[in-house]
Amino acid sequence: MTSSLPARPTVKPANPCFSSGPCAKRPGWTLDALKNAFLGRSHRHKDGVKRIQEVIDKSKAILGMPKDYHLALVPASDTGAIEMAMWSLLGPRGVDVLGWEVFGRMWILDVTKQLKLPDVRSFDVPFGQLPDLAQVDTDRDVVFTWNGTTGGVRVPNGDWIKADRQGLTLCDATSAVFAQDLPWDKLDVVTWSWQKALGGEAAHGMLALSPRAVERLESYTPPWPMPKIFRITKGGKFFTEPFEGKTINTPSMLAVEDCLDALKWAEGIGGLPAMRKRADNNLAAVAKWVEKTDWAEFLAETPESRSNTSICFKVVDPWFKTFSDEDQLALIKDTEKMLEKEGVAFEVANHRDSPASYRLWGGATVETSDIEAVLLWIDWAYQTVRAERQSKAA
Hints:
The protein is an alpha/beta fold.
């Protein structure tokens, strides 16, 4: 640790929003972007359906999704989308479930405690690590997060998934889409939400299904009761309407308009390659800062698995480690409050169920100049809180 306090920074981020969900709006966003929203009308009117279908079509095009994949707008954000898939598809094969952060572990609990499937293998490792992917059997069904939002750890590639697999791969990709390359041929179910990489509004999820997933839907009927919002079959056949813009329940057309605005912005800057580059630049800015900052290290243990969206770093200062887990979290929160009071950063503490650490959203809607600016403020806030605590203890 350096012995002297850094000077109070003078340059503030232009946008202080670094939350990992809902995430920062796209650069230049104002409420005027929603002026043409289809409001006060039925979402089932042809013009409402047209707008929802436009979200589907633009999302598929930007992400490079295969033409024979089906994509729907579904209720309850990414959580609703991945649970809809698990409840509808799991059961006929053994299941491998991977967890290395908060949400992956939630899906482990869903499969083992709620669905109570008889043949489940759980791969659960500490924050900052990935399971041994070579041990995963893709002839079984597999449930995993591509990018661990609360751990800053992502799957580096899909090489561990067999092309001729017998099982289905169910991928929660909410912090990966629009920032990382997904091997669509290796993924049978992909889910995400608008409030992550697009900076859209919450409560709406997206569910993508491969032809193999559709085949499972039509050949297997789960033995448990299925809530209406989870039903994607009708009379034993694939229910296509939600994948044609005719949603299962009523969506917010204001949120739909906001999503369209984000998708058009993504198209305008160059699509997925440009969005990925912006996120990579943000990760590079954090890496450069971590390298020269003696009290901080990435939570992700290997460079290959570091997320370029939910960028997490921990405190390795020996003084900090003398505190209990509860007190460490309080110290992080103290710096977060200081940054909020200064108006330079909001929600930079990691998820409440993660180790005490910092987390910056680095997706494409965040400017690299804002990342560079906020890191100086975090350094100032941490060392200021540290000095104040040491002074009181003296």
